[in-house]
Batch of 2 targets.
Target 1
Amino acid sequence: MKKEGRKRWKRKEDKKRVVVSNLPFEGWSHKENPNRHHRGNQIKTSKYTVLSFVPKNIFEQLHRFANLYFVGIAILNFFPVVNAFQPEINMIPVCVILAVTAIKDAWEDLRRYKSDKVINNRECLIYSRKEQTYVQKCWKDVRVGDFIQMKCNEIVPADILLLFSSDPSGICHLETASLDGETNLKQRRVVKGFSQQEVQFEPELFHNTIVCEKPNNHLNKFKGYMEHPDQTRTGVGCESLLLRGCTIRNTEMAVGIVIYAGHETKAMLNNSGPRYKRSKIERRMNIDIFFCIGILILMCLIGAVGHSIWNGTFEEHPPFDVPDANGSFLPRALGGFYMFLTMIILLQVLIPISLYVSIELVKLGQVFFLNNDLDLYDEETDLSIQCRALNITEDLGQIQYIFSDKTGTLTENKMVFRRCTIMGSEYSHQENAKRLETPKELDSDGEEWTQYQCLSFPARWAQDAATRRSQKGAQPLRRSQSARVPIQGHYRQRSMGYRESSQPPVAFSSSIEKDVTPDKNLLTKVRDAALWLETLSDSRPAKASLSTTSSIADFFLALTICNSVMVSTTTEPRQRVTIKPSSKALGTSLEKIQQLFQRLKLSSLSQSFSSTAPSDTDLRESLGANVATTDSDERDDASVCSGGDSTDDGGYRSSMWDQGDILGSGSGTSLEEALETPAADLARPEFCYEAESPDEAALVHAAHAYSFTLVSRTPEQVTVRLPQGTCLTFSLLCTLGFDSVRKRMSVVVRHPLTGEIIVYTKGADSVIMDLLEDPACAPDMNVEKKLRKIQARTQKHLDLYARDGLRTLCIAKKVLSEEDFQRWASFRREAEASLDNRDELLMETAQHLENQLTLLGATGIEDRLQEGVPDTIATLREAGIQLWVLTGDKQETAVNIAHSCRLLDQTDTVYTINTENQETCESILNYALEELKQFHELQKPDRKLFGFHLPSKTPSITSEAVVPEAGLVIDGKTLNAIFQGKLEKKFLELTQYCRSVLCCRSTPLQKSMIVKLVRDKLHVMTLSIGDGANDVSMIQAADIGIGISGQEGMQAVMSSDFAIARFKHLKKLLLVHGHWCYSRLARMVVYYLYKNVCYVNLLFWYQFFCGFSGSTMIDYWQMIFFNLFFTSLPPLVFGVLDKDISAETLLALPELYKSGQNSECYNLSTFWISMADAFYQSLICFFIPYLTYKGSDIDVFTFGTPINTISLTTILLHQAMEMKTWTIFHGVVLLGSFLMYFLVSLLYNATCVTCNSPTNPYWVMEGQLSNPTFYLVCFLTPVVALLPRYFFLSLQGTYGKSLISKAQKIDKLPPDKRNLEIQSWRSRQRAAPVPEVARPTHHPVSSIAGQDFSTSTSKSSNPPKRKHIEESVLYGQRCGTERMRDDSCSGDSSAQLSSGEHLLGPNRTMANSRGQTDMSRCSKRGSHRRSQSSLTI
């Protein structure tokens, strides 16, 4: 029992790491230090040493089958009984190949060694007990338990727990660009209990023990606790951990203790090196190599059997059959076996040894041209395509499925505040909508400066100081530079630099993002709310009421406070703004402003300052609708600067009135702005906001537009300036950060005026609406009625926002008593100090706090489509590529975006499945499959599902008989039901009938599972494209992963195979470069295999005339030169430069891409056709010279020279016939290879007197060149050999029906005729053109009982109408008994809702009255709560 207990305790301890200070053990032996088991900080990424390089590199190269094969053949040739060539000469080709690869590996490893040396010898400050101070040591000398002192702009040498910061608040700012590419600053705080240090941290007084988790690669996760000498514990997390490789910013000094060092740091554990992917052509090539091995074995067997039979024809042993020392001869069977091995050595070139090296070189050339394509360069971000995986370029031409993220990939990821609802009243912000409708925003500084100069005097006077500084003609240094410049040292200048650029100073700082035009109706109410806020005091706390004024104040306070935004200024963009706590007015008082107006006799303007009675708009009838969450968990850190100017239809308005905006006007040039003194403007620099998500930044900008300005933030307090200039400083008691499970964020603050403890929460609507207080618990009926109205109308507005494609967030609050908060805070501290189940305990404490909330309102944020997305999607679909969108966003938002980007069409039948019940899911899938099969009049396909094409449609006379296109929309819960219920097969079968699939509310894990499911079950080529960290698993699961270098950092890019700046670049990348790369490489591989088989067969035919003795008629040096020099360059030029079709034609005719999807250039049939052609050509090249010289007395090399010359000429001419593009390089290489053969042969034959005794090639070529027969044979034989291929290519070019051959004909026409032909082609191919509308104006909806399954079609499609009737009968009975979640597709997106209008109701007159009644009843349910079927029990 004791042993078992000890084992259990040891296993438990193995999961932990215990760290103590090294100072008490300084000077002791290494064995006595308790930290001795932890690794040091020296890193080694190089693989070799001087001694281990040769054996280790050879061992690694022999892992490639081809290398192992050729080394084995070379070793076999050293045995005298089987050798066919001189052993030393036979080693030359394989040694050359191995040496070239070894040199490349040595060069790469040398670079890694030098990089390691530089990093290991960087210096840092380590505390020494002996010296009583910090001493400089190298990074490699750092050990776990050491105390490290870091200064501003220094790089963190190891994973360090922060114990001291020079910042009074205990904050240390980090830049993590080297880890995740994100340039915005992260805040790390000192461990609790160490932040109140008045003086310098004393390491010798540190006697605590740190217990934490074992090293792992989770960058954003760390849990542990610090045990004090009095046995008390303090929890530590990732908010106190400084990761190796990050850079200290805006902090003069920081001190910490090393927790993980060297290869155990999180950065090194994440550095797994480049991933190796095998392309489809390489997999196909490996199969064909085995076919070639089979051919080789067959030829060797024929040689062995032939040798035995030939020897059997002699009555006595022939004179060349030499006996052994005992005078005995080899048995015939053993001699046949030896001849088998000899034939393998002789015919070894059948397997092309140089093919793999040639493929590597060709791919390097293809990547070079990819990187230098200006069409794939984005001028705005100054980014071009990055090819991070060099070995799968040809897969770009064979893609059949694309899986795309939505936010940031299809959309701009520019979050723009669009509209909001507060206490059930909707504020549409029409002026803001007009501003967003402008066709093109002026983002460049030069254009803003031009616009600024054109303004009238008062408006220009109101500009901020940063804008005035731009008059000098210089532009501030862009922050985006830091993500792309590799860190070379510890220092990076913090002050303003200048360079010419058109990029905004900070990410998300374009005018369209930061400038929000307020709603005039809401603006007056905000002013009243701000004035009411100042009347609060300790004696008159804000009672819990439903008044509009108090709710508006809380709403904008929540927008300003409930975030993690860091405030800085444009003059010091990395310096955090801090303000001492003060509740006094820092700006000009309201009375002084009014007196100023009276003196100026502008009393008409001062009326806008007077208080007006709160007025609510008429409440309309509420309707229940879908409850879903936003995609804010997909967003990553982003930097946001609030500043700059904008113009709108109402005239000029500065959104950055934080320098002195007392009460700004909504539109026009207000006189308040004109009277603002420049001195005040210069005194208060412009604020920059660095947020962790673009949604947060958009909300802070929106609050700022209404003059609720976030002024400063520290770990203990946050300061907000009100419209009248008063600053309120809230004590920040606790922050519950956003996570993808809770889908919300909360802050707990103490109100500076009332002293109340308030919880402000923002999050996804589906989550927040379920956490609201129950109206039934209200004290009286009036309050209950009003609460229900507010919640119902807010839900209606949320559905309206979602149908408009807006991202929605709900805002709520809760007031806590002092006792409740203290009790909760103690639970929270216990959870933070726990090591086991820490995450679960923290989640539980958050759920205890975030309940019984009071709804304040909701916001709608717009994320616009990227330029060129609809056209790109339409083109990719024409190319035969099926596009799926996998997003975590709301269903309605995703559907709306799908219509905008032409993923779904108005005429499509859209199947929407929302259920978490497996049986229900299965029945719905069966029903949908049955219905679609009836439409297509086909049975369930039993073939391997290839591509996305629907079963072929038979043309019909009437338009009503045309099969409608189908789309599928499912959510994450349905995906869980499909995966858990083993319904993948039915799901995939259903998707084959759908032109597009939308997976909403999907988690990163579900995204990768879908990609793997489609890739493995359908055996198709997949591509995933995304821009955020949540897309990494999806990108890695696909055959090709593409990262967008966007706003969300570089995690997606770092995990991808290719990185592009815009989604629209995907069109040329796939249709042009993908097609070229596949076509070139596929035809080059086929040519290589043909070339070697053709040449080796010459030696095989000769065996029939030399008694299968394994001898050759061609000198071995000539054979080596043949593969290494004479025929190696033309395939390389062909693989890099050949263009079978021009880029313009490929883009104009996307259907041409299907040739790559179908592997038309390289498949089983093309391989065997080329093999047959190789056998035929080898027969001609051997037997025509044989018949010509038959009966003559020429020697063996004189016979072999014309055969060698003929084969070279035939192979080069064959290559010329395969080339579709002719450039100077093609001609020079082909002609040069031919001339090089004669030059080398002449020199070799003239100098080689006794090279290959007894038969030597001396003067053979010179003799042949003087013989007319040689010329005649060398001219006629290639013509006869190539005649069948030439005839075949001529027929193919004249009568070929393939798309490629037709396009090649079009390419040869003059430009005007070519354009006419392309237009004619497109008109024939496109029977039904793609609609040009960006958003459906009318989309009828049919709601089905339970809403587990819904469909939407246009009015004009008759078959779908019949479908709705059937569904009503099938599912109508369940409407009254089951409370299913309402989930409808797009409806009329009208902002005006008349009383009693059923927004989600059916818009079609049904033939079946019962079905209509049931469906209407279902759609009228008005509860915002989740239904029973959607709840997770």
Target 2
Amino acid sequence: MSSRREESQDRAIVRIAAHLPDLIVYGDFSPERPSVDYFDGVLMFVDISGFTAMTEKFSTAMYMDRGAEQLVEILNHYISAIVEKVLIFGGDILKFAGDALLALWKVERRQLENIITVVVKCSLEIHGLFETQEAEEGLDVRVKIGLAAGHITMLVFGDETRNYFLVIGQAVEDVRLAQNMAQMNDVILSPNCWQLCDRSMIEIERIPDQRAVKVNFLKPPSTFNFDEFFTKCMTFMNYYPSGDHKNLLRLACMLESDPELEMSLQKYVMESILKQIDDKQLRGYLSELRPVTIVFVNLVFKDQDKAEVIGSAIQDACVHISSVLRVFRGQINKVFMFDKGCSFLCVFGFPGEKAPDEVTHALESAVDIFDFCSQVHKIHTVSIGVASGIVFCGIVGHSVRHEYTVIGQKVNIAARMMMYYPGIVTCDSVTYNGSNLPAYFFKELPKKVMKGVADSGPVYQCLGLNEKVMFGMAYLICSRDESYPLLGRDKEIKYFMCTMKEFLVSNCSRVLMYEGSSGYGKSQILMEIEYLAQGENHRTIAIALTKIGFHQNFYTIQILMANVLGLDACKHYKERQTNLQNKVKTLLDEKFYCLLNDLFHVQFPISREVSKMTTLKKQKQLETLFLKILEQTVKEERIIFIIDEGQFIDSASWAFMEKLIRTVPIFIIMSLSPFTDTPCVAARTIMKNRNATYVTLGALQPKDIRNKVCLDLNVRCIPKELDTYLVEGSCGIPFYCEELLKNLDHHRVLVFQPMESEEKTNMTWNNLFKNFSRPSEELKILTPNYEERSEEVCTLASGVRLKNLSPPASLKAEEEITFSKIETPKKSEIFSENLSPEEIREKILSFFDVIITKMKMPEEDIIPLESCQCEEIVEMVIMPLAHHFLALGENNKALYYFLEITSAYLILGDNYMAHLYLKEGERLLKMLKDDRSWSHTFEAAAFYSLKGQVCFNMGQMVLAKKMLRKALRLLNRVFPYNLISLFLHTHVEKNRHFYYADQQAQESSRPGKRRLAQLYRQTACFSLLWQIYSLNYFFHHKYYGHLAAMMQVNTALETQDDFQIIKAYLDYALHHQLAGYQGVWFKQELMAMEQIFNLPLKGMGIEIVSYVADTLGYTKLLMGHLDLAIDLGSRAHKMWALLRNPNRHYIVLCWLSKSLFLKSRNKQLIQVLGWLWDLSVTEEHIFSKAFFYFVCLDIMLYSGFVYKTFEECLEFIRQNEDNRILKFQSGILLGLYSSVAICCGLGQGLSTSVGTAGSHSSTWRPAPSPVCDSAGMAGTCEPAFLKSIRYARLQDWDSFHEFSSRAKNLVPRRTPTALYYEGISRYMEGEVLYLQKQIEGQSENAQDSGVELLKSLESLVAQNTTGPVFYPRLYHLMAYACILMGDGQNCDLFLNTALQLSETQGNVLERCWLNMSKERWYSSSERTDDCWPQTLARLPSWEKVAAGEASAQDVQKNKFLMRVNILDNPF
């Protein structure tokens, strides 16, 4: 019964129903919207105090990420207890509204009297819960409960994608009022509820001046049996669990799958929640403290009582609100009746929905909603409150009934502003400051005392977002502080000074553009430039733009010209009009003055000529006038335009400026953030102008960050720990540094104290190395009166661990915005969105076919004349050169060539030789340690990266990671060490991604040779790093892995090298696939394909195409797409064969053979193995041979025939196990040893008899002799193959242990490669066989071994680097282990999972074995004696199978006989 319940609770429909009340789950509603339903019932409104305060406490906690976990645990501890009580007493939870909930008991009117008694009993028991429980986290949780009864109306409304419901009517109004009257621990009955109840059962207390009453306790007669009474009452509740389901809390837990109902219910649940339900995520997954913007909309109706009237108004409002929010990724979280109206709780910034300019969009949406709803004639008043900040967003409630909701002070503030400032759109100060909108869009309102809000701060009315130029309000926002110098931007200022000098002495325009992401200090640079640009013979005009101006035609020029004409200081339109007349009277005919009306808000009479002009003609007339004005002005004084936030310049203004710099000598200086979309033609033209200088702002140096911190804190020095934390955490970005400092100050981490003189400092061993970081001498020169500044130092509060602090909310929000942008690659140019995945697949395969056809044509000069000769070049050219320079004492050159040799051996797969020459390189590095040249530093970085690669190949991941990090440091590319630094680096890299993607689109110049060399080495490091981090079990390591993969892509994009970019895209796609990020990987693969579609198909181009086919084939095998893996692998094989590159060719054949093996395409498999054997012999390639025999053992074990005998395979292993290439290659020997161990283990003829699966009793029978009678064997001569197996068996388990122990020594050498997982899968299979022997032998620790084995198998499945192609086999082994241990339930689960995966992947081989296992394990037939030895003797050779002497049915029969006997009738 319990397993059935667990199975039902895992159904999607049950998980969806948990988010909805029974009223909706079992409702039968009209499809019309709105639809209305009427019924009677009892309502309970429970308000829980303390949660909002607790949310605030955790949201400002020092370790906020852990705070969210604690908060959700405490919230659900209390709320689930209330929910459980309500459900036990037959209630239906209608809604969770933050820290309150509304419950319903829906019954016929004649049952109301008895049901009210039940609900009162339930209410008193809820209060009892909190009287006995101790407060947690200093929280005194108490509840207030209001009850009402009577007629209730339900309204269902929505659009084609979402549905919502409301309960309305007098009873709803009564329950809200009753709850408002309640004090802590009170239960209040509404007047109607008191009228309808059984008064003899309830002891009440009158409330002065009110008809509502307070419940004291129940007073049933002495003969009253509540249990009988309750059981009788519940018979009137339609969906109360009874009979077989009486132990359930809720009947909806047993809903059967119903696609139609499921689709209907989905419309009531938010899309992000549905996604988590589909992915079977845990309830806590979406629960977090996160920065959001709340928009609370309240609608008060003219006729409140008529459901039909307000229903249509709510429907109209809802459809419009949904459409507005959808544009800006906002969502309606709740709809409920609130005070005297209907309220919509809307949220911007839910998980996965974070968008840039969230606050601005929220205000824009609020104004739009306000304007629309105000026009709906049935709506009397529209009030909207907008607040921004950290709130708890998460799933609250019980496992069987919960909802996604928001709780926090900001939710309360938005709600209170909405109610206390009716009829307008209001916002809090955080929203006002975060909107980046001009101040004239707002009006500060008088403060009011609002219930439940201690201090809301200033409240503003949003007047609307329709831009109207307000002259004099577009000045630079920053203000220059003489005592605060501009730090770390000397080079940027020098660019300005040089360009300024050129401009003043020439008659040409100049453009200087500073580009940098938000927070790099662009505005501060412009402020400094404005100060430095002041002079007698030129005039400086500085403005700052906002996003609003981008959508206004000619806006930027309008503002600039208003300043040129002196209109910014005019207070009245008449003054502006007079000024304009004086300025333009010689330049413009009076009849055209009215052209200036709209631009400068003046009122010249409109002439007939102008009224007939087109918009375009008017625009051209104005441009001509402005050019004349500027030409005239620059004759008197030079003009310098300074524009902050230049990315917001509208396209018309860009076009005018492009003409301006060609015709008038003018100096334009601007700052801009990277363009999110391709800039307009005029903007691109200006950027490419020969007189334009484009400066990209970089990060500040550590000394500048340190200087900045000392200035910001007004201290003489800071602790080194704080210095390191801020330098790493800020990534050199000033804004990040400021936010981190504010966060530390907020949490009182920083302690200030007087500075001690060095003589007075008490130096001890403990503080010997706790030195302070002091500002540089340069700061003392730059800062006036430095010596007069504070004599304090900054220290840290005791017990604080900076590395574990949560990032500030402002940075957390910004990070998520950029994450959402980067995960959506640009639209494909070659693969249109209309193409289906099958059509894309065919297009790609056809492309490779065309390439192969061209390669075969003799006239096509695309194949190199000679085959790959890497090894010969290394031995005959590079190695002699290395020793030659070593003999000459030219150690620098010798080091270079030794590293080249190492790199070549790594390509050839010889880790031992690579290691050998690295040791020589290390010796030379030590000799050259005093060399500080760039080339030596680069060679040192190359040495450490190659060392990291050798360690990676050997499975030494800790050492590999250390080496790769060291290499990156030497290459001036830091990889973060702590979580906050990781978080901020991720943000920086996402901004870099947009920049490089944009540069790629604009075909900018390639980096120089030195920079390219660094970048190539960096990509190699990052490619290995993301794989290393993916191996780790800790959850945060996936973020490090994601960052490394992204850094690889960015670095590759910077190289502008086709191969590096394609490889990075394919790696990024593989990372996303293994990590389970759906959708993104496909787009990354398409981007790689687009790149090769545009390559010249000669030389390197054709090798890149072959590499892509090869890599995609490997990836598809890893992900379990076997048919596609074969299609791609076959084409890659043909291409590498034509290119005569054995080092790539053998790898393709290895993985192609595995794909064919799993598909049971034996004829093609043998053909590929033949090619692999020929290649290994021709090239004397030991790895190819090893893989060949590995597959031969697999064929023998699983395919039902023999290609190479066991004796031959064993002989190869014994002869070559000490080969340096195999010995130092993680994976291949692990697989070979494990396969041999399995053969030995299977040959033991074990039999086991265990009782029914899940029982604790076992009956043991001795195993029959492992030596079989030869009578059953065909022929009189025993085959050599059987001799070797007999030898293994005669040694009992000695041979098994010999090879298993050798394999076990190789297990810790984990690498994230298919080869390692092939090996570990075989090893785990051997361990399962050995578990069977332990159980057979009644070993004392068999149970513990089984548990550990299952844990190991489960962890393998859970690892990010385990390809799904291995899942069927691993789940099969888990099922096998479970049935050995008597766990039939989990065995069934794992077996079905493995079967389902095999079906999806088309894994014919595993499916065959799974079906045999299922048939055997579920069969009631008698166990057959072990027949493995006889079966092996009868296994036909491939020659017989190919010649038709052994049919396919015989092969299948052999496989059937090869099954391992385990448990008789386990179920």
